[in-house]
Amino acid sequence: MQNQSSQIFRLGTLVIDGVLIVTLFAAVSYWRFADLRISNPEYYNYYLQLFVLTFVSWYASGRWAKTFTYSSGLEQRNVLANVLRGAIAQFAILSIIVVGLKGYYYSRLFLGTYFGLLYGTAIMYRLIFVQFLRHQMAKGRWQRTFILVGMHGTAQALIELVSIRPDLGLQHQGTLEVTALDKQDFPESQELICALAPSTKAYELAQDYALKQGMRFRYLPDMGPNYVGQLFLESLEGFPLFSERRDPLSNWLNKIAKRLFDVFFTVIGIALVLSWMLPLFAVILVLSGAGFPFFTQRREGLEGRKFTVLKFRTINSKGTSNAIQRWMRKLGIDELPQLFNVLVGQMSLIGPRPHTEGDGFNYAAKIRQYKIRHWAKPGLTGLAQTRGLRGGEAAADKGLLEARIRADIYYIENWSVLLDIRLLLETVIRTVFLPSSLHKK
Fold this sequence. Notes:
4-stranded parallel beta sheet; two-stranded antiparallel ribbon; 55% helix
């Protein structure tokens, strides 16, 4: 639902971005080359071409990535994600074109400085801009007024929502039955939200009233108060279909992005960490009397399919562990060989931890939404693990188990490359510096 703040954001970002592109290009060019038109006219022509390409590709990629779009209640992390998507798209476009334009003409120092300043400034001012717009709407500015015709649980929830969240930009002016429409006048109302069934005569009367008054007409279905904010509309040849959960990883482009992320960081992890840690801990386990240092186990993966994981052996044949094994299990070092599972595509670096078939059956009996976890590949680490919800302790306590499943489902519904990067960094930092934070107290 668009409001005045959305239009201000769109116009403001379109204009400010244009000024940024021009100003930064001129400033960085002068800093790097002084007056290029005089010192080297041939280079000047190439840099002029680069400027035009930058200008066009910025707006083209920005339109695709929705960097000029603002919606009520938009979070700053979404703004950041949109700009980064647009920047990656622009970088890909420019990389292809610049290579064709003999890219050796361009100074790496110039390119790094210019695009670093452009992306950094675009992100910072947008975050400030969004905060400013939300603050202004919270003070009552740029509000869209509406009347509500009819009443049900969802309609009541909407009234309560806009009353406590003025930053959403909606102001409720009254609720009435359709028979009272012609008896009251709402000259300042811009919209009519109808909570009546579309197949009824009352719905048609409300629609006709909005048409005569020049008001925007919107339909609010009765989904019950508990479903507000949880249903997402899709369209199949004009037929509305509502989904209860977002599923970003069902999009093939997102799947490719996540797979590239996994392969890139897994290769780095195997080369820099596992290449020496694997033989080192294998020898330590053998010398400590743990027996053969590795073992395999069947786990449940994507869509519940079974696969085999590789682990360091941290429990002996008698069900006991020595000090080395307990320390490895505490830090999650026993899971590191699963980098090979990630490399072959059975797992992801970030995702819900894979459970055994028996554990999965028991957990599903306790937690109704448990199998939503199977919508994503299992991970080496995940949101639940960074919150300390890991190991048998979290599974034994139903409250902790529920918190663990909620964290897994939140990750699946809100996946992004940025979230994966954050969780990967957080896991590394916590494991190295704050290992005790990986376990719920």
